[in-house]
């Protein structure tokens, strides 16, 4: 799953380029939401009844997991824990959207990121060595 100098594509399994794209999509999506769209995040966490401390901890953890997913392009051992962490957060996002009865359209982004995170985690199993 690692990129090597002089190679344009990752080497290894045949799903490698697709997994790398999924990692980047998840990571950049999370970074975009937690940096550019922070006011929306603040509003949603207030709507969920969660404190600023919880919001900040979740944000720090998600940004860290996103950074680890990107670093995982070069260090494959980082991918599985980062992808599983992201999947857990996306599962909780689904729960909170459901709990406050958001329309289905609000669920889509976190559902897609949940599925992509699970795909990345499944593809990374065995890369922890």
In short:
With 129 residues, this protein is mainly alpha-helical. It contains five helices and no strands.
Count all strands and give the number.
0
Q: Give the rounded overall mean pLDDT.
A: 90
Main beta-sheet annotation? none
Tell me the Rg in angstroms: 15 Å
**What is the quaternary state of this protein?**
single chain
Quickly give the structural class. mainly alpha
How would you describe the shape? globular
- The portion of residues forming beta strands comes to under 5%
Helical residue percent? over 70%
Taking the alpha carbons of the first and last residues, their distance comes to 12 Å
Secondary-structure element string: HHHHH
Unreliable segments of 5+ consecutive residues: 3-10
Count of helical stretches: 5
Number of domains: 1
List the helices and strands and how they pair.
Blueprint: H1 16-35, H2 38-48, H3 52-71, H4 79-99, H5 104-124
Helix pairs in contact: 1-3, 1-5, 3-4, 4-5
Characterise the protein shown here.
- With 129 residues, the chain is mainly alpha-helical.
- Helix content is 72%, strand content 0%.
- The chain is built from 5 helices and no strands.
- It has helices at 16-35, 38-48, 52-71, 79-99, 104-124.
- Helix 3 (52-71) packs antiparallel against helix 4 and helix 4 runs antiparallel to helix 5.
- The longest helix is centred in the C-terminal third of the chain and has 21 residues, at 79-99.
- Mean pLDDT is 90; it is low at 3-10.
